[in-house]
Automatic annotation (TrEMBL):
Its cofactor is FMN. The keyword Flavoprotein applies. It comes from the Bacteria. This is Flavin reductase family protein. Belongs to the flavoredoxin family. Keywords: Flavoprotein. It comes from Ideonella azotifigens. InterPro entries: Flavin_Rdtase-like_dom, Flavoredoxin, Split_barrel_FMN-bd. Residues 44-223 form the Flavin reductase like domain.
Length: 235
């Protein structure tokens, strides 16, 4: 990651001079030329999340996802309506957004070709998905009771966010094509963090200890070392 970033900046990384000032390379690096491309997917790199929800009969379901972002105490999620996780979240209004680290990569990929839906929808069966009724057991994850919501947390995930659904918005139909997913706004009710990623005696996440698992054009990555810090960072 560092090596790639170094290449991107023409062999020179921006230097973090003091706590709040960054010195850009001088002369500026050559700007690469661009071509027009049509990638089949646009997953440019976001953290993997595992959303735990409850099925109608009360059993827990886990769904890997990566279309999730945070602003203030809200999360916005993009979930396919054909997924069991989406159905469960919209029906019950409750979920836990579990954030795995690189150590959970193999477990995430074990969950990847499965769905809690039975029977498996035709289009997913054609892609090789199979039904799985106990995803905690499949991924060898440990369920932990949540404080404010029904779905359990995943003990192995360094961050676990209990959420309540506030709004659901159907993705727009364009040229008669319905993309078939919902944009879901959720409020974070409680954050749980592994003790070793919290700065002792504070409410801050230790960014030297926490590393998200990134989903980049259907490949998994860990983050590299820190390149700098935002002028508003509190640690
Ligand atoms: C790493 C990863 C990221 C994914 N991101 C999303 C996503 O953001 N939204 C979505 O609807 N499906 C996403 N999927 C696909 C779902 O996990 C898949 O449809 C799964 O079958 C859902 O399980 P469920 O039907 O039990 O909810 C992702 C899959 C993987 C492996």
């Amino acid at each position: 990651m560092i090596r790639r970033a170094t290449k991107r900046f023409g062999g020179k990384l921006p230097r973090v001079e003091a706590m709040h000032s960054i010195v850009l390379p001088n002369p500026p690096p050559r700007v690469p030329s661009s071509v027009e491309v049509c990638p089949s997917i646009l997953y440019f790199g976001t953290p993997v999340a595992l959303i735990s929800t409850l099925n109608l009969e009360g059993a827990a379901n886990l769904s890997p996802m990566s279309s999730v972002w945070a602003l203030a105490d809200r999360l916005v999620l993009g979930l396919a309506q054909a997924s069991q996780g989406c159905e469960n979240f919209v029906r019950s209004g409750e979920a836990v957004i579990n954030l795995p680290g690189p150590d959970q990569c193999v477990a995430v990929e074990a969950l990847a070709p499965t769905t809690g839906r039975f029977p498996v929808p035709g289009h997913k069966r054609d892609m090789g998905y199979r039904h799985e009724g106990d995803k905690f057991a499949l991924a060898k994850f440990t369920p932990l009771a949540s404080r404010f919501v029904g779905p359990p947390r995943i003990a192995e995930c360094p961050l676990q966010l209990e959420v309540r659904l506030l709004a659901a918005h159907g993705a727009s139909v364009v040229d008669g094509a319905d993309p078939g997913f919902l944009l879901l706004e959720a409020k974070v009710l409680q954050v749980h963090a592994h003790q070793d990623i919290v700065l002792p005696g504070s409410q801050h996440i230790d960014t030297q200890q926490w590393s998200p698992l990134l989903y980049v054009f259907r490949h998994y990555f860990a983050t590299g070392g820190r390149l700098g810090r935002n002028f508003r960072a509190e640690t």
